[in-house]
Design goal:
Strand content: 15-25%
Helix content: 25-40%
Number of domains: 1
Mean pLDDT: 93
Strand order of the largest sheet: 3-2-1-4-8-7-6-5
Largest sheet: 8 strands, mixed
Number of helices: 6
C-alpha cells in the first residue's frame, strides 16, 4: 500500500495538461533537439528546475519518443552536494523502465552554482568539431573557444548577476574541458570551468558535446541555438581561413 501511494504521489508530479509543465516541456524540447541532430542515439539530455523540484530526462531513451511518464523528479534541497554519483541521489519519482541520467550531477551544478532554471546537454556535431579544431592548435590554445564581431553573439547574457546581453563587438568565451569515460565524472571539471569563467553560460566537452544553461527554459534554449549557430559558423570560417577573432572598427556608439 505504501509503495502504491508513493507511486501515485510521484505520478502526480508529472501529470498536467499544461504544455509548459516541465514534465511535458522536456519531451517536446528533446523531440525538437532530435530533429537538429543534438540528441541522436539517446545521447544528450535536458533538465528543468521549478523552484525546488528538478525534472530530468532519463538515460537510454530515444529522445524523439520521450513521454512525460519517462521523467525523473527530485527535490534539489534534498541532494547531498558532495555526492556526484547518480546512485547516491534520492528521487521523488523514478520511471520503472529507465536509469537516471549520468548528466544529473552536471545539471545540478548549473542549478546550484548558477541559479539556472534549465540546463541542456547536446552532442551537436558542430560543438564536437569546434573542440577538435581547438585541439589541433596545440596545448595552451585548446582550452577556450573565442569569437567576436558576429551578430549572433547578442544572444548571450553578460553573465550571472549582470544586466543586458553581450554586444556585437564583444568576445564570447566558452571554456573547454576534457572528456571522461563516465559522464558523471565530468562534474568537478565543469565546476572548475564555472569558477574560472564566471560569466559563461556554457561549457564545451572535448570530442563529446556541450552543456548550456540559462535562467529559464527560454534563455537556455535560445542560447543553445545561438551557440550551435556560432559553432557551425566557426567551422565554416576555419575552412575559408577566416579568423574567429577579428578587428572591426566600431562605427556607432554602444547603447545599453
Amino acid at each position: 500500500m505504501a509503495a502504491e501511494q508513493q507511486r501515485q504521489t510521484g505520478d502526480a508530479l508529472i501529470t498536467s495538461e499544461d504544455p509548459n509543465h516541465p514534465a511535458n516541456l522536456i519531451p517536446s524540447l528533446c523531440a525538437k533537439f532530435w530533429t537538429l541532430g543534438w540528441v541522436t542515439g539517446t545521447g544528450g539530455g535536458c533538465s528543468i528546475r521549478d523552484d525546488d523540484l528538478v525534472y530530468i530526462a532519463p538515460s537510454g531513451v530515444q529522445k524523439e519518443l520521450m513521454k512525460n511518464t519517462d521523467i525523473y523528479v527530485m527535490a534539489l534541497s534534498e541532494q547531498d552536494p558532495n555526492h556526484n554519483k547518480i546512485n547516491q541521489r534520492t528521487y521523488l519519482r523514478s520511471p520503472p523502465c529507465y536509469k537516471p541520467s549520468q548528466c544529473t550531477p552536471l545539471f545540478l551544478a548549473a542549478f546550484t552554482r548558477r541559479g539556472a532554471g534549465c540546463c541542456i546537454h547536446t552532442h551537436s556535431q558542430w560543438a564536437v568539431l569546434v573542440t577538435l579544431l581547438l585541439e589541433s592548435q596545440g596545448p595552451g590554445k585548446d582550452r577556450v573557444f573565442e569569437i567576436n564581431n558576429i551578430e549572433q553573439i547578442k544572444g548571450f547574457g553578460r553573465g550571472m548577476n549582470k544586466t543586458g546581453n553581450l554586444g556585437y563587438h564583444d568576445t564570447l568565451r566558452i571554456p573547454v574541458i576534457e572528456n571522461t569515460p563516465h559522464e558523471e565524472d565530468l562534474t568537478e571539471y565543469l565546476e572548475e570551468a564555472m569558477e574560472k569563467y564566471p560569466d559563461t553560460y556554457a561549457v564545451l566537452v572535448r570530442r563529446h558535446g556541450v552543456y548550456v544553461w540559462g535562467d529559464n527554459v527560454h534563455k537556455a534554449k535560445t542560447q543553445c541555438e545561438s551557440l550551435d549557430y556560432l559553432f557551425q559558423l566557426a567551422v565554416e570560417m576555419k575552412k575559408l581561413g577566416l579568423p574567429w577573432i577579428s578587428e572591426v572598427e566600431q562605427i556607432a556608439p554602444q547603447r545599453t
